[in-house]
Amino acid sequence: MSEFSRLALVVSDAPGAREAAETDFRDVADWVPLDEADAVVVLGGDGFMLQTLHAMLDSGRIIPAYGLNLGTVGFLMNRNRNPETLIKRIGKAKPHHIAPLRMCAVTQDGETHTICAINEVSLLRETRQTAKLEVTVDDKVRIPELVCDGVLVATPAGSTAYNLSADGPILPLDSNLLALTPISPFRPRRWHGAILPDRSRISLRVLEEHKRPVSVVADQRELRDVAQVDLEIARDSELTLLFDPGHALDERIVAEQFVV
Questions:
Q1: What residues are labeled active site?
Q2: What sign does the dihedral 100-104-107-108 (CA atoms) show?
Q3: Rounded CA gap, 50 and 158, in Å?
Q4: 26-33: long-range contacts at Cβ-Cβ below 8 A with a sequence spacing of 24 or more?
Q5: What is residue 43's three-state secondary structure?
Q6: In which band, very low, low, confident or very high, does the pLDDT at 260 lie, cut at 50, 70 and 90?
Q7: Which of 15, 20, 52, 154 is deepest in the core (most CB within 10 A)?
Q8: pLDDT exceeding 70 applies to what percent of the chain?
Q9: Is the pTM of this model over 0.90?
Q10: What is the pLDDT of residues 11-62, one digit of tens each?
Q11: Cα–Cα distance, 131 to 225 (Å, whole number)
């Protein structure tokens, strides 16, 4: 048996995942409740993996997660094959540690919300009016007025998601970097984003907030009508993903750069 003696199984609501849980995985381990486990097996896709990781962040009890892909892309997951070898595979899995972004967002009415994001935090215009944002890094204003549809900050784990679609850079998992990427920028015309050390503190202030309202999305959670968003890495909330040898997240990030 692997070093994890108590395994929990969590399953997405997708019919394929539910069926696999009942027919293929029900008897491969003596499953325990999540709050008693020292590792969790996640059946589903990337979205459900993010939900599971966020639930652990919210509860304050973080344990390693081994995903089996029953979704579409499965970037955060392992291949779903040979259920009877699951325990052996978990025993040989390689851990990869991910530190999420901690977002502190202040809304127009003065409310403060603190949320963690594993992939990215995105600021997006709410109306036909372009957003106007002041970009500050480490207490220094870098762009007094960024006119755009939005801007995002991505971790290495999230750099191949929305960030890549917005023409942002792919970041190796161990790079200790963040991608600051504009979304459809209008001014400054020549600014295409920045790569920053992950120790950076990033502040994004909404200019003309009532005329040009902006929402913020931390992975799958949205807040509307924000006035300012402050971001930094949450080193006290590190997550652990388990991957089969040869299918690790860092290799997938490298391979993604050669997709044509």
A1: 46
A2: negative
A3: 11
A4: 28/83, 28/84, 28/86, 28/87, 29/86, 29/87, 31/7, 32/6, 32/7, 32/8, 33/8
A5: strand
A6: low
A7: 154
A8: 98
A9: no
A10: 999 998 999 999 999 999 999 999 999 999 999 999 999 999 999 999 999 9
A11: 12
Q: What are phi and psi of 102, to 5 degrees?
A: -105, 120
Using alpha carbons, list the distances in angstroms from residue 46 to 17, 170, 232, 233: 13, 18, 23, 21
Q: Which residue has the tokens 């973080």?
A: 62
Both tokens of 8, joined, read: 């929990």
SS3 state at 235: helix
Question: Are the CB atoms for 212 and 196 separated by under 8 Å?
Answer: no
> Could you tell me the CA-to-CA distances from 189 to 11, 48, 122, 129, 148 in Å, in that order?
46, 37, 20, 18, 10
Amino acid symbol at 3:
E
Tokens of 121: 């935090």
CA-wise closest residue to 78 among 47, 117, 42: 42
Tokens at 210, concatenated = 């009532």
Unique residue bearing structure tokens 């109306």: 127
